[in-house]
Design goal:
single chain, alpha/beta, Rossmann fold, globular, binds NADP nicotinamide-adenine-dinucleotide phosphate
Length: 254
């Protein structure tokens, strides 16, 4: 990993919900490629531990507590980034919640509110705060889900919020933030993280998911980080408004 290219040298990247799982993997990848990374999540202890782990890999890192639906936290995230680094080149909006496994018509109003608040509204509000600091050549990556293409079963309403991110990417935010900032999206397949453990730790369900892929395996945080780093980098400088499905060939869309 230490021998990888340095596409983000001199750049500053904010990754939300990045003290473990996919967000951590993305922060690590961007950092190993030269970015100063700003990591965050709800718990100070998680922020401190993740920052230490990244520093041990030689990465320049700022850790900030940020519950994405807390206005004050979002403001601190941006303010502290600007105070320390003076610029924002990349924002990866990665936070999500899945508070209910009920059918949509059975889902409590409070759960519907939380899904909208964290999975969609907070992503918009983070970008609203960050946008004035994003210069020419900057880029945004939203983390959606394969479930955004086929919202169903116990993940139906969560999936619909991820469908909203596909819409935000194409064309809404991409056109609003053009030409200075590109906006793209990654739709991961299943990755055995804490978030997905209720699904991936069940042997039968895990097997069924693996069978739906063409590559016969679940995804890894590294798979998601590599795709995100590509879209965030200048290698993707003529790509905006796109979603990259990183799901081992799981059916999504043409
Ligand atoms: P994860 O491993 O469970 O990690 C979640 C991270 O988010 C932790 O760092 C957690 O730290 C933080 N977090 C949780 N709620 C937060 C909030 N409200 N505000 C700020 N930080 C918060 O999850 P993951 O699987 O990597 O998921 C990351 C993203 O990938 C999500 O958008 C998810 O929808 C998407 N995704 C995941 C999969 C999958 O199979 N894993 C598939 C498709 C899409 P604290 O507890 O300290 O807050």
């Amino acid at each position: 990993m230490e021998k990888m290219g340095k596409r983000f040298q001199g750049k500053v990247a904010i990754v939300t919900a990045s003290t473990m799982g996919i967000g951590y993997g993305i922060a690590e990848r961007l950092g190993l490629e030269g970015a100063s990374v700003v990591i965050s999540s709800r718990k100070q202890k998680n922020v401190d531990e993740a920052a230490e782990k990244l520093r041990a890999r030689g990465i320049e890192v700022l850790g900030v507590v940020c519950h994405v639906s807390n206005e004050q936290h979002r403001k601190q995230l941006i303010d502290q980034t600007i105070q320390k680094y003076g610029r924002i080149d990349v924002v990866v909006s990665n936070a999500a919640a899945n508070p209910s496994v009920d059918a949509i018509l059975e889902t409590k109003e409070s759960a519907l509110d939380k899904l909208w608040e964290i999975n969609v509204k907070a992503a918009i509000l983070i970008l609203k705060d960050a946008a004035p600091h994003m210069q020419k050549g900057s880029s945004v990556v939203l983390i959606s889900s394969i479930a955004g293409y086929q919202p169903q079963g116990s993940m139906a309403m969560y999936g619909v919020t991820k469908t909203a991110l596909l819409g935000l990417t194409k064309v809404a935010l991409a056109s609003e933030m053009a030409p200075n900032t590109r906006v793209n999206c990654v739709a991961p397949g299943f990755v055995p993280t804490h978030f997905a453990s209720y699904i991936t730790s069940n042997k039968a369900i895990r097997g069924a998911i693996e069978e739906r892929t063409l590559l016969n395996r679940l995804g890894t945080t590294e798979d998601m980080a590599a795709a995100t780093a590509f879209l965030a980098s200048d290698d993707a400088s003529y790509i905006t408004g796109e979603t990259l499905v990183v799901a081992g060939g799981t059916p999504s869309r043409l």
